[in-house]
Design goal:
The complex is a heterodimer of chains A (about 325) and B (about 450). In chain A, the strands form two sheets. A two-stranded antiparallel ribbon of chain A has the order 1-2. A two-stranded antiparallel sheet of chain A has the order 3-4. Chain A is globular. Chain A is about 75% helix and about 5% strand. Chain A contains 14 helices and four strands. By secondary structure, chain B is mostly helical. The chains are: A mainly alpha (about 325), B mainly alpha (about 450).
Chain lengths: ~325, ~450
């Protein structure tokens, strides 16, 4: 049995891999879900066709990062998976049900005539609900989980708090920003003009929610407070500063009617937010109870999977990029395949 | 009342329901992806547009089923944690990596190239499109490999040790991946998926022949399906027999339940019909073929087969479900073999595409593969009870510390949602079949040009 445990810190590397998978999921499916949340507000049916078509070839691959996040957590940190899933039982089940409606809407919408409106709403509420639940799961984890031994021991509704409600709304707004800036890049005409208006409007909310979370999280736990406002203050200062600059870039590029830059700025803003959360939660997989080292799988298991990741991840990224390249350019409103 | 609900039983019912719903779709898409690759290959080789039209027709149905498979599969990857967290914690180090490899080698490959397969016609060359179809087909087979490796480990676990905390620790990956039952289960499942697809495609082809629609396309569908029925259905019988012998060696209690045998006996009879009674530990209304069970399982007429009474009551699987599921699976398998034989006879008489009676028979067998496949999974999974990892981890010790009422409510939600979705998917698939194949040459070419949701960058420049 091979194992790299004497050469490298396997749990640390796996923490980074899972975090990357979750980040890629949030970035990639984020614009899908945000677009879905915006769906009924689009100015015309033609617009909606364009919106749907702009993500039809990608949503499936994007959602796979969620499977890698969940499956990877199970494989690399089984203890964390076994505690977090029962703790988040209700929002996880709701998120899955929402994702089901979102997913099948792609197939059913274009095959239906009379019932199209039904699948339009399935797509909308599925996307909106999934985004909200993901935000609430995030909030529920960040605020801490009650653990006894190797199991969750809190109540079924521990996750439901003012804090998690706020993170839920925050994620919805963030996803809508990603969705709107994606549309600016992928569409033209009316849809683009509308998407630009949406992006300007929603970016204000994103600023407010990111500010609220940034101020609230340090009060959840004394260690987090010390980390941000103590010895590491100047070391960590670039994170909020760069985020502020990115917001400036976003507003500037929206005003100047740039097509790609708003989306890039939005992705980077999400990345910085993610980085900020990672700094706060370090080194826990189940805040503030179980660390990445406590919950890591056997070194042999982590080693075997690391081989797979090192070989497969570059290949996956390469063909994912190729698929985005194939479908580059502006989207049209014709459907069928 | 809700508080008295048994979370173990509810969690089992929920997993059985969601996994049964799920497996129907991947099983069909495993077979359909391979078949579509063959059809597209034939189109490229012969230049006969009929093949392309058949491809473009079935790829729509493929997309619906694939989407259903994805959304119901995501649920499963989280359900291990929500409902079976203790199982996940304990065996995660052993089977977690297998599921990880499934995501890395299969899911991304399928999901990414599916986009090209559906929307890439006017954006990539024919060759690249064919490669995309192949990638999706290979992805489905990789996926089957890993998930069956994980399942087979749960059936015949090996290559691990259990530490003081009760956590399973891998000791040999070769032993974990290639467990004794894995080769049989993998081949049996892939062949089952191929047969399921063959009988669905053949059934639709037969229905078109009956309706005198799309005759050239229907001939391709029925003809290719019958090739599978002739060669694969009998092969499946042999593989199934070998799988059964393997089960007899490693899980004799499951075989005893499959055969409805209570007392250990030599020259055991084959029960064709029986009502197993678990309380009385006997069968009612038996119809038997003398000595046949021993003959099939030990290949000797007086071979010894262990009866269920060899195991304590709490160590036995539920008998009636296993017993009857097994009969349904084998019965439908025999019907498939019979179909193959009939097809050969009709072919020799040059009546394969003219016999209305045979076409009705084939149309009636359209869902046969799905039912047989589910029945087969019921045999092997219910037969694994009362363990999650056979012999080493009990189901009752695997369940999450969640309340029965929450499991009940989520189960109810899944039943409602899945029923609606299954209804919708069936409706749209039947609608697609009813609408038929787009054959009008000009219209078809026109259609394929706009078949992408994207403007072609080259057209934009022009």
């Amino acid at each position: 049995m091979f194992s790299f445990e004497n050469l490298i810190d396997l749990p640390l590397i796996w923490g980074a891999i899972i975090a990357t998978a979750v980040l890629l999921y949030v970035l990639l499916d984020g614009f899908d879900l945000g677009l879905g949340a915006l769906f009924p507000f689009a100015p015309s049916d033609k617009c909606r066709d364009k919106m749907m078509n702009s993500i039809a070839p990608f949503w499936d691959g994007n959602e796979t990062w969620l499977v890698l996040g969940g499956g990877g957590l199970f494989a690399a940190f089984p203890l964390a998976y076994a505690i977090v899933m029962p703790a988040m039982y209700i929002p996880v089940i709701l998120m899955l049900l929402c994702l089901i409606f979102r997913g099948v809407a792609f197939e059913f919408r274009f095959k239906s005539d009379k019932s199209r409106i039904l699948w339009d709403y399935a797509f909308h509420f599925g996307s909106l609900g999934a985004a909200m639940m993901q935000g609430m799961i995030l909030g529920g984890i960040v605020q801490g989980v009650t653990v006894d031994g190797r199991s969750f021991s809190g109540g079924a509704f521990d996750w439901l708090t003012a804090f998690s409600f706020m993170t839920g709304l925050g994620v919805v707004c963030g996803y809508v920003l990603l969705g709107a800036t994606w549309l600016i890049m992928k569409t033209d005409g009316d849809t683009q003009i509308w998407a630009r208006r949406v992006a300007k409007y929603i970016s204000l909310f994103v600023v407010i929610f990111m500010g609220l979370v940034s101020l609230w999280v340090p009060y959840l736990d004394n260690d987090i407070n010390l980390r941000w406002f103590g010895d590491y203050f100047y070391f960590l200062l670039p994170i909020p500063v760069i985020t502020a600059l990115l917001f400036g870039g976003l507003i500037y590029s929206l005003k100047k009617e740039k097509e790609v830059m708003p989306f890039v700025c939005s992705l980077l803003i999400f990345f910085m937010g993610f980085l900020g959360l990672a700094v706060s939660l370090w080194p826990y997989t189940v805040p503030y109870e179980v660390t990445i080292w406590d919950s890591a799988s056997a070194p042999e298991s982590l080693s075997l999977m690391l081989v797979g990741v090192v070989i497969m991840l570059p290949i996956i990224l390469a063909y994912t990029a190729y698929c985005y390249y194939i479908f580059r350019g502006k989207v049209s409103d014709e459907h069928h395949y | 009342m809700l508080t008295e609900l048994d979370p173990v039983l509810l969690a089992r019912i929920q997993f059985a329901f969601t996994v049964s719903f799920h497996i129907v779709f991947p099983a069909f898409t495993i077979g359909l992806a391979s078949w579509l690759a063959v059809v597209e290959g034939l189109w490229l080789k012969t230049g006969n547009d009929t093949y392309k039209q058949v491809y473009k027709f079935w790829v729509k149905i493929f997309a619906v089923c694939f989407g259903m498979g994805v959304v119901s599969g995501v649920v499963l990857s989280y359900q291990f944690g929500t409902n079976w967290s203790v199982f996940s914690d304990k065996v995660g180090p052993v089977i977690g990596p297998l599921l990880g490899y499934e995501v890395l080698t299969a899911f991304f490959l399928e999901a990414s190239f599916l986009g090209v397969m559906l929307f890439g016609w006017s954006r990539v060359s024919n060759k690249m499109h064919f490669i995309s179809t192949l990638m999706v087909a290979i992805g489905t087979l990789f996926s089957a490999f890993w998930i069956l490796a994980a399942n087979s480990w749960m059936q015949t676990p090996q290559g691990f040790e259990i530490n003081a905390d009760g956590i399973f620790h891998p000791t040999s990956w070769m032993e974990v991946i290639f467990t004794p039952s894995f080769p049989y289960r993998f081949v049996h499942m892939v062949l089952a998926a191929y047969l399921t697809t063959a009988f669905t495609v053949g059934g639709v082809g037969a229905w078109y022949l009956l309706k005198k629609r799309h005759i050239p396309h229907a001939r391709i569908m029925l003809g290719m399906a019958m090739i599978m029925a002739v060669f694969v259905a009998p092969t499946q019988l042999v593989v199934g027999d070998l799988h059964g012998l393997n089960t007899l060696e490693h899980q004799p209690a499951k075989v005893a339940a499959m055969e409805g045998i209570w007392e250990t006996e030599r020259g055991a009879d084959l029960r064709l019909f029986a009502i197993p009674d678990e309380d009385a530990e006997m069968n009612h209304y038996e119809v038997v073929i003398p000595n046949a069970a021993s003959l099939i399982l030990t290949h000797h007429a007086d071979g010894e087969i262990k009866g269920l009474k060899e195991w304590a009551k709490e160590d036995r699987p539920p008998v009636a479900i296993v017993f009857w599921s097994f009969r349904i699976m084998v019965g439908l398998g025999m019907a498939m073999i019979l179909t193959g034989i009939l097809a050969v006879i009709l072919h020799l008489r040059k009546k394969l595409f003219d016999s209305r009676l045979f076409h009705m028979w084939c149309a009636a067998l359209t869902p046969a593969g799905f039912i047989a496949l589910l029945a087969g999974w019921f045999v092997t999974e219910v037969g694994r009870q009362p363990y999650t990892a056979y012999g080493v981890l009990r189901t009752s010790e695997s369940v999450s510390p969640v309340l029965g009422e929450h499991v009940a409510l989520s189960l109810l939600a899944f039943i409602v949602v899945y029923t609606v979705l299954f209804g919708a998917a069936t409706y749209y698939i039947l609608k697609l079949i009813g609408r038929g194949i787009e054959t009008d040459k000009e219209g078809f070419e026109e259609h394929s040009k706009v078949a992408t949701p994207f403007k072609n960058p080259k057209e934009q420049e022009a």
